[in-house]
């Protein structure tokens, strides 16, 4: 049986037809073409698929599309305004917080979720939130630095 | 993942009406963080999912009399951040914040946390063991690094939940709804079942029942509590062993104590002998060590999990000393 889900994605209302078993990440990537959200493990461990649902960080591979009915989803594409990068993205570039980049959208979303709730996090708080995500390249140090830098940038522009 | 039917029940009564009498045919989905993993690995292949996260009757934290009522579909993050939980049952907030990572706590619910299925590697890889209705336990003679040292056999799983030991220590009960508005209340220490009682399952829930709410009495006035979780990494892992400890001191002497351990037995394990050892004592290196030793009395480690005996002993000791 098919289901209709009505949700808001990056500020735009959309209505999509899915199977009950369709994962949110597949709706985003395959039906909406938002391929910035990556698929790594598909079992909730790596965080490459991280998005915000109603402002909260979730793993879109551990959520059915039907569970997102009526909810507000933000993906990595929703962060930047057109060509301009979001300050969190800029900080990742500045601090060399990516190598292959596979994990990066997930880390950026996790960092963004943190900074929305807590504009001035301690290093421990940053590490705590980033524990939702795995990176096989960077060794995490630059990622933590990037989040600190992003926090500073965001504080100075508000 | 096989397809399945899915429809949102409008009320709790509608939800129980959808469940039926057969284990496995219909599954309750709350946050889905455990269930979807099981379905993707084909450990579970329900023909229908019944979502409960939206049900009003199962949402949120309320103070009622001298305790809390926590809807089973309340996300863990809301349990952790709730003022009433922090003030009236801080042990629960301390345990809930140790579950997985922030994203898991945003999605996962407290009811799903205590009803989650075991993490045994053979079980998760679909070996035809007792848990799957087979006639052997592969871990008993195989990879058993993370298995039970207490109450094991015929299955040697450990109960994976972080909130369960805290809830048992607090003396919580489960409110359970069945079809047609039927209800029962089960104290949590009778909610979990050992493999000897039922090797296929970890709790008393019948296929047509839903865990609706947790009833959590306030922690005793003047009590102190801690939840200590030992993992292979600092975060994002299931407990090798965990200790939920709550003590009340009167004139420096332990007058009341609860010690419940996770990660060491197929159920949250109340360490009654450790409680007896420390009751009436001052909290010192010597008495806490004696309680640690008593906590693992009767432990029967397997070939590869002997390390859990001294680890558990030390964790109990450390937990108690932190409350001195
Ligand atoms: C990467 C990762 C790390 C994790 N780390 C931890 C950890 O450190 N500690 C820990 O304790 N857990 C951990 N978990 C396990 C799990 O995700 C959490 O325990 C979570 O709280 C489960 O809640 P849920 O609402 O997502 O459950 P679901 O997946 O929705 O349900 C789990 C099970 O309980 C049943 N169920 C759910 N709600 C009810 C109800 N109200 N009545 C009856 N049955 C019900 C479901 O049918 C299913 O069998 C982890 C999971 C992942 C993926
Ligand atoms: S410990 Fe339990 S789940 Fe694991 S192999 Fe043995 S019977 Fe199966
Ligand atoms: S793809 Fe979702 S957590 Fe790895
Ligand atoms: S940059 Fe390659 S996995 Fe993180």
Note the run of SSEs of chain B as H and E.
EHEHEEEHHHHHHHEEHEEEEEHHH
Strand order of the largest sheet of chain A: 2-1-5-3-4
Structural class by secondary-structure content of chain B: alpha+beta
Any idea what the CATH architecture of one domain in chain B is?
2-Layer Sandwich
CATH architecture of the largest domain in chain A: Roll
Note the total helix count of chain B.
13
Radius of gyration of chain B: 19 Å
| Sheet having the most strands of chain B | 5 strands, antiparallel
Domains of chain A (count): 2
Question: In percent, how helical is the residue content of chain B?
Answer: 25-40%
What is the arithmetic mean of pLDDT of chain B? 97
Strand order of the largest sheet of chain B: 4-5-8-6-7
Alpha plus pi helix count of chain A: 5
CATH topology of one domain in chain B: Uridine Diphospho-n-acetylenolpyruvylglucosamine Reductase, domain 3
- The fraction of residues in strands of chain A falls at 15-25%
What is the share of helical residues of chain A? Answer: 25-40%
Overall morphology of chain B: globular
Number of separate strands of chain B: 12
Largest sheet report of chain A: 5 strands, mixed
């Amino acid at each position: 049986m098919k289901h209709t889900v009505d949700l808001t994605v990056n500020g735009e209302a959309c209505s999509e037809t899915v199977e009950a078993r369709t994962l949110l990440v597949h709706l985003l990537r395959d039906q909406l073409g938002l391929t910035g959200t990556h698929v790594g493990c598909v079992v909730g461990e790596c965080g490459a698929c991280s998005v915000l649902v109603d402002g909260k960080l979730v793993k879109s591979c551990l959520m059915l599309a039907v569970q997102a009915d009526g909810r507000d989803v933000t993906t990595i594409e929703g962060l930047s305004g057109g060509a301009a990068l979001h300050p969190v993205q800029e900080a990742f570039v500045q601090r060399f917080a990516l190598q292959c980049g596979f994990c990066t959208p997930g880390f950026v979303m996790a960092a963004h979720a943190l900074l929305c709730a807590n504009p001035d996090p301690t290093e421990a708080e940053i590490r705590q939130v980033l524990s939702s995500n795995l990176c096989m390249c960077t060794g995490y140090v630059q990622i933590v630095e990037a989040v600190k830098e992003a926090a500073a940038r965001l504080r100075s522009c508000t | 993942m096989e397809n399945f039917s899915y429809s949102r029940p409008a009320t709790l009564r509608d939800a129980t009406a959808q469940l039926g009498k057969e284990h496995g045919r219909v599954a309750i989905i709350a946050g889905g963080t455990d269930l979807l993993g099981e379905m993707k690995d084909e450990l579970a292949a329900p023909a229908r999912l019944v979502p409960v996260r939206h049900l009003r009757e199962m949402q949120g934290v309320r103070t009622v009399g001298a305790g809390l009522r926590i809807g089973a579909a309340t996300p863990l993050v809301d349990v952790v951040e709730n003022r009433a939980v922090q003030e009236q049952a801080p042990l629960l907030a301390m345990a809930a914040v140790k579950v997985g990572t922030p994203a898991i706590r945003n999605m996962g619910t407290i009811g799903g946390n205590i009803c989650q299925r075991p993490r045994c590697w053979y079980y998760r890889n679909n070996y035809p063991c007792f848990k799957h209705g087979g006639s052997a336990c592969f871990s008993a003679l195989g990879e058993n690094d993370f298995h039970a040292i207490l109450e094991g056999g015929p299955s040697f799983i450990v109960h994976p939940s972080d909130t369960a030991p805290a809830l048992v220590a607090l003396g919580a009960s489960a409110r359970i709804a069945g079809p047609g508005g039927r209800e029962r209340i089960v104290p949590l220490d009778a909610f979990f079942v050992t493999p000897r009682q039922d090797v296929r399952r970890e709790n008393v829930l019948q296929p047509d029942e839903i865990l609706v709410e947790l009833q959590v009495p306030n922690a005793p006035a003047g009590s102190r509590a801690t939840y200590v979780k030992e993992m292979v990494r600092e975060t994002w892992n299931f407990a090798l062993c965990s200790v939920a400890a709550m003590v009340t001191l009167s004139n420096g002497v332990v007058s009341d104590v609860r010690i419940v351990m996770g990660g060491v037995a197929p159920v949250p394990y109340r360490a009654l002998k450790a409680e007896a050892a420390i009751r009436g004592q001052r909290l010192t290196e010597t008495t806490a060590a004696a309680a640690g030793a008593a906590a693992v009395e009767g432990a029967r480690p397997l070939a590869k999990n002997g390390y859990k005996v001294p680890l558990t002993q030390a964790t109990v000791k450390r937990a108690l000393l932190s409350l001195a």
